[in-house]
Model the fold of this input.
Amino acid sequence: MTKEEMVTLISAEGFEFVIDKKAAMVSQTIRNMLTSPGSFAESREGKVTFPEISTTILEKICQYFYWSLQYASGKETEFHIEPELTLELMMAANYLHT
Amino acid sequence: MGGACSRKRGEVNEESVQRGAAAKYFKTGSSKWLNTSFRLGAKNSQGIDKCPSLIELCVHKICKDIDKFIEKYRTFSMLPRDISQLIFIELVNSHCLNETSLEAFRDCALEDILLGEYPGVNDSWMDVIASQVLSLLAVDLSGSDITDCGLLHLEDCINLQNLTFNYCDHLSDLGLEHISGFSNLTSLSFKKNNAITAQGMSAFAHLPNLLRLDLERCSKIHGGLVHLSGLTKLESLNVRCCNCITDTDMKPLSGLSNLKELQISCSKVTDQGVAYLKGLSNLVLLNMEGSPVTAACLGSISGLVALSYLNLSRCNISDDGCEKISGLVNLKVLNLGFNNITDACLVNLKGLTNLESLNLDSCRIGDEGMTNLAGLVRLKCLELSDTEVGNVGLRHFSGLRSLESLNLSFTIVSDGGLRKLCGLTSLKSLNLDSRQITDIGLATLTSLTSLTHLDLFGCRITDFGTTCLRYFKNLQSLEVCGGGLTDAGVKNIKDLTSLIHLNLSQNTNLTDKSMEMISDSKAGSGSGYVGTNDPDPESLTNLASLNISNSRITNSGLRYIKPLKNLRSLTLESCGVTANEMKKLQATALPNLLSFRPE
Done:
């Protein structure tokens, strides 16, 4: 896996998640950030900071990205969501257009 | 965080007005009604489930555990509007909304509260609904027990654009008074209300932005349309099946020059009333089905060049005066069914080359008139049921290459004429229901491989004829009820794996063996049928409805159809099948079965 194929997502607490670019692009918002040429520093450095998304939630979102790719390839499993995370997760998902 | 989710706004759920005359020969246990009422799962065109978004998963999770969420958070008002709206919609769709969970949506600034046909809705729901105040744009309380007092709650929701109160039996003129303050209203619907009168309708005069008004099946609104005369933005008015509507009710409409759709079917409007519509130059759709108008009314509407949909079914149209119809050159859909017109009238249709749908059901027309249809090359749908059209007339159809639906039931067309149809390869739906059609005629149609619907209800089709059916691999609906089939013929039907509706009733020789073959394509196969070449042979597992009434099928045949899990309707009247065994079958193997006979 070359560096260009990975991106780094950074949570409010500064925790870094290094994931496949392909997975991150499941989010329409991240896709826009990474693909609009020049306009975002994110697209140059492959790093995106989310000052409003906590580490727990960002981790869950990264799990969803990979789950979504699996689902698309035909592996239809259930995606578990902890009840106590649901509202916060939903607001983040809304922001990420996911 | 900003909201990125978008919902479709301003979409009007318009009932199709282009349905034409309903199927008149309703056969008991026929599959036709099923087409409209069944959804076959939410799959995309490739048949693969779409990956749910994370928001969808979260919304689903909340609705599943709604009681726990409400216990913990009490309200959803801390959520962005977009999200609480999504939760609300999902709760409604999953029928999990009740008065308690509704309370959590107080002051959520929701835009849409669409509770049409939702059980249990009454005045006590109104307080929370009204708490959305200025955000509220659309409310649908159709079929609820809301009363005039309940409507009063909405008073401060002055931004409302869409209001729908269909089938609300407790609303009357008093309730309409509360509506007069909603000057932003663009769409208003009060279907089937028997209390609204002209007096209450005076409120409509205060709704200058109204674009759509629906008063279908309101029986006491005579004299009330006078309050619409100033609503110059009005684009659509539906007073279908308001038998009280007369000629004088048409007068106030004469100045509504933006009107695009007008439905006055089953009214008392005559030619005199239609004369008031002369100036409605933007009219695209005019539905006068079942009204006592004659061909003379065509004189009034022949100048309406925008008209593309005209329904004159079941009126008093005769040949005399029909020539005016030739001026309506933009017509796409024309329904003249059930009128006393002859071939002489059809001459006037010759130049209507934009026609895509023509209904001449039960008119006194024959072969001679068909020459005038030969040039209507855009025709997709042609209805000639119960006419005197015969083999000679079909000769003129060879150029109608766009034809997708053709009804020749109860005509005098016979086997010899069907050859003329073999070039109409766009045909998807073909109805040949009549006794004089036999295997020989069917054999000439094997080029029509796009067919999805084939009705051979009364045709004299035998096992020999069923060998032709294998060419129609796309068939979703098939009726063969002429009495000539045996189990050997069913063998040829079992490979039509796209079938959703199958009616084989009246074939009195069919036995349990037929049930076995329908459910398992491997049984008795291997004799050169097209289907046996498929790498993964399926049985008729897509079947949603099956009718094999009047046959020799017995209780012991029922076990074979257990794999048909999609079956929703099963009719086995006058067979050796008992209601008790049917109930058992439903309970143990076919949970989707909604309707079964005997019951």
